[in-house]
Amino acid sequence: MQKTNRPTINDVARVAGVSKKTVSRVINRSPLLSGDTRERVEQVIADLGYIPNPQARALALRRNYLIGLVHDNPNAQTVMNVQQGMLEALYGTEFEMVVRPLNRGSATMLDDLRHFLERQRLFGVLLMPPVSENDTVAELCDSIGCRYVRMGSAALDTAEHMVASNDREAVRAATQYLIGEGHRRIGLVLGPHGFRSARERRLGFEDALKAADIALPRSLIADGNYTFESGIVAAERLLDLMPRPTAIFSSNDEMAAGVVHAARQRGLDIPRDLSVIGFDDTPIAGHLWPPLTTVRWPIASMARSAALKLIAGVGDNPEPEVREPSMFLSTLIRRASVAAPGDG
Amino acid sequence: MQKTNRPTINDVARVAGVSKKTVSRVINRSPLLSGDTRERVEQVIADLGYIPNPQARALALRRNYLIGLVHDNPNAQTVMNVQQGMLEALYGTEFEMVVRPLNRGSATMLDDLRHFLERQRLFGVLLMPPVSENDTVAELCDSIGCRYVRMGSAALDTAEHMVASNDREAVRAATQYLIGEGHRRIGLVLGPHGFRSARERRLGFEDALKAADIALPRSLIADGNYTFESGIVAAERLLDLMPRPTAIFSSNDEMAAGVVHAARQRGLDIPRDLSVIGFDDTPIAGHLWPPLTTVRWPIASMARSAALKLIAGVGDNPEPEVREPSMFLSTLIRRASVAAPGDG
DNA sequence: TTGTAAGCGTTATCAT
DNA sequence: ATGATAACGCTTACAA
Fold this sequence. Notes:
Chains A, B: Keywords: DNA-binding, Transcription, Transcription regulation. Chains A, B: This is LacI family transcriptional regulator. Two copies of one chain form a homodimer. By secondary structure, the first copy, chain A, is α/β, with parallel strands linked by helices. The first copy, chain A, has two domains: 66-165 and 299-328, Rossmann fold; 167-297, Rossmann fold (3-Layer(aba) Sandwich). In chain A, 43% of the residues lie in helices and 15% in strands. Chain A has 13 helices and twelve strands. Chain A has helices at residues 9-16, 20-27, 35-48, 54-61, 76-90, 109-120, 135-144, 167-180, 196-211, 228-240, 253-265, 283-287, 299-310, and strands at 66-71, 96-101, 124-127, 147-152, 162-165, 186-189, 221-222, 247-250, 275-280, 293-296, 327-328, 331-333. In chain A, strands 2-1-3-4-5-11 form a six-stranded parallel beta sheet, sandwiched between helices. Chain A has a six-stranded mixed beta sheet with strand order 7-6-8-9-10-12, sandwiched between helices. In chain A, helix 5 crosses helix 13 (299-310). The longest helix of chain A has 16 residues, at 196-211. The first copy, chain A, starts with 8 loop residues before the first helix and ends in an 11-residue tail after the last strand. At the A-B interface, helix 4, helix 5, strand 2, helix 6 and helix 11 of A face helix 4, helix 5, strand 2, helix 6 and helix 11 of B.
């Protein structure tokens, strides 16, 4: 219980024989300091083990050294991967991460967020999809003076304010792969209405069919909402079709697991009777039987890059000039859930 | 003067015609205030939409209204459930949640944590397993003056500092169920060495066998580390045994998924040829084929209770007298992965 | 290049 | 029961 032992800026100033402002300048890397004084002060700081008090800084600066993760994403693994990436970027800096889940669809969501941002005076926030797709939220951050970077499945904002994966192109490639294997009747399980990622993935799917001159009847498109259960429902409808699709692209892995589940219940063998491709490459993809061919997007890398953008130009961190990439490529992970169509 | 239009305590004091200290008293629910003044000040607070500045409070109180979640748990879903539970408890309070992952096995882990706690001056932390099992960490929190509550699979601390599930009893019951179905050769896949949960679950397993007077040869016990892959390895060893076990209890679902995977690769049917029980009831359990019988522990409830303990007696929150429960019961979720043994 | 004084918005001390 | 005044630890003017 030795709270008294923690040195303050005054202690450093006294021991170093300078004013606290000088110490403050050293801490904040002010350019106008004699190398002499700087070294001396830095030595004292090291000797005393002085660490600036974040609360005092927050008060004086009217800004907290806190980076928020704001999300309303239902996928635990995705959220964890984002946290992981952010923390990599924040490690060794003076920033901490604060997580703020939002209730999707809640009427008070925007107010909740405003309260949160205003009260805590966050330095910046990383917005995860789907809330990141909401322009009003971005404007809110702007108006409050809180930096923000949006994560998305397509270019949502300027490079400074966004990191994105190219879902459309990735799904196009995945679907093309299916077509290359000989599939012509390919079902599509959609993501939830209003999700940008759902739209992008659908567009990529359609791109591939169009390029191969394959018609896409509405009946081959089934609704879904990214849940396992919705994948089952969608697959049941698709597998009732006559003739049956020989392959299904599911807009995420969770639903793909539902598709696999439904197919198995009908005694269909995957991939012999039905090929399946998912999206996300969550752990479930590798654990399914057979292991699921899917699209992997570099979540953690994107989140790391986003966090670096947020803290760019602060302290030791690279200046904004050193641009972090904004577009990330997703890749097709080929496992065992795809084969050439049989004589279905 | 008003750079931001956000009212401060001074504004409230001026408008209400009292001193800032009086306003402070109102905010902090000081008992020695005339109901008259209180009402007047509260009215002004409401009119102005005044919200105390957390940074200033943190500086004056030398304590942040931040609750930390400290964890080194590899399971994304578990961590998310804990976050969920904490946020439920924190919702509507002045507290925010900060997440702090720790690198298990890192030599600097303890130092990292100390730095974090000292710098951020957290109000309290929720320690998740397995790091919560480390007494040194608890002592560290104590010495820094940071409240803490440990989550665990057995009573780790006093009621004030802990919420626990009774893993041993839950596994005993699960194993007894297996025995009741007629199984006698039951394999056990262990959790990682040094994890309290692994130990408790093993003990529960042994309790049940002992009560039923069933011998447990060492060969029926396989190592694991809570990962899917380790489940596969363990199952392969177990299924090589002659005679083969008719059932396997896996110390978590992830490994149980590996067991199912390995069994399927050998052409074994579950549950006809092999019954399997897991632990955790993560989403994977319901998605497996067949759906996995498993033990569900009330993670979110435990986390909520833990968070309530942490903020007990502050502001509107119930006094410490109103004790939150410390022990939580886990329940067996019967699905389709268990049946009576065949003629294996 | 460095120091002085005045905040930042709250709580604690000690009056009255 | 209430208020003046001094912390809390740091930063931003503005001087020197």
